[in-house]
């Protein structure tokens, strides 16, 4: 009886808060769900939390069966990841089929998996073997999906660092790096053939951190600022992220394609960093994300594509305490592992607590519901 009461109460609160949660999140926001940490809540608790936030799209860096199972029979759409360490294997048709049958097929009937990213920021590596294996791996995974009759449900792509752009200013003159031209051209041809998007990880924070004296903080945070006008198109840009997206579109066009969508697979701002990571504060992170959410709510496109709302996945859901690298890498989360917001990003919801039984067979609830309510600006 006690168990039924707790679960019924939890469901009631979930439905109530879902109706009052920020509705912008149905308009195109996705969130990256990284798990390089040893203190994160269980996937089942995260599933309830995200439903209270009305988040309907998640991106993973793997195909964690625990996560996919926790979100079964939900409305959440997943991008699952196939790590760089698998690229060599994925050029083999048997190994590619085994991966899809083991990691995708068991879940796809109950969990909405819509995309596989084959590799992540491959061209950031100096290993040219990875570069050479990327497209063959993408093609083999796609062929496997075709053979299994899943190619209409699941698209194939890869996520790239903005580092692949050789020139981004002005946006209309965007080009890919010359040393990558051969690889990128072939990848774009494949995207055009199978009608899948080109994913880019775009972080205005990096540009500001590297050159804070020349780049306006207001420009990278979507705050009021004079902006810049592209001399070739007379298009005006009031923020760097949109300029970066249009630079990618220009680079794609320079390679002969106008039929490929650009999706932002990662963007975010750290709330904490090392002394040389200028601008990594909770105040700046709050401004970046709340202003970005406002633009997503307005379904705003870039100056070059004003009628095409940008598809955006924010990085990341939680702070990840085991991530290597500078301090900022551990502090991109919108939330702490206990479910409380790191800063005011404009989201509201709750993280359910842990339900467990005592030796006397009576139910105990530890922090049964952790509420947070951050009003949208």
Looking at CATH, the homologous superfamily is Glycosidases
Shape: globular
- Tally of DSSP β-strands: 14
Oligomeric state of shown chains: single chain
**Largest sheet entry:** 8 strands, parallel, barrel
Whole-number radius of gyration? 21 Å
* Regions with little confidence, pLDDT below 50 for 5+ residues: 1-27, 355-377
Which strands sit side by side, in order, in the main sheet?
1-2-3-4-5-8-11-12
- The CATH architecture can be given as Alpha-Beta Barrel
Work out the helicity level.
25-40%
Give the H and E element order. HEHEHEHHHEHEEEHEHHEEHEHEEE
- Overall mean pLDDT stands at 89
- Strand fraction equals 15-25%
Give the helix/strand class. Answer: alpha/beta
**Count of discrete alpha- or pi-helical segments spanning 4 or more residues:** 12
Tally of distinct domains: 1
Q: N-to-C terminal Cα separation, in Å?
A: 42 Å
CATH domain topology: TIM Barrel
CATH class label: Alpha Beta
Quick structural summary:
The chain is α/β, with parallel strands linked by helices and 377 residues long.
Q: Can you walk through the features of this model?
A:
The protein is an alpha/beta fold and 377 residues long. It has helices spanning 2-20, 43-53, 65-70, 87-90, 93-103, 105-108, 128-147, 181-194, 204-210, 217-220, 240-254, 282-297, and strands at residues 29-32, 57-59, 77-82, 112-120, 155-161, 165-167, 175-176, 198-201, 228-229, 236-237, 262-267, 311-314, 348-357, 363-373. α5 crosses α7 (128-147). The longest helix is centred in the middle third of the chain and has 20 residues, at 128-147. The two termini are 42 Å apart. Keywords: Glycosidase, Hydrolase, Signal.
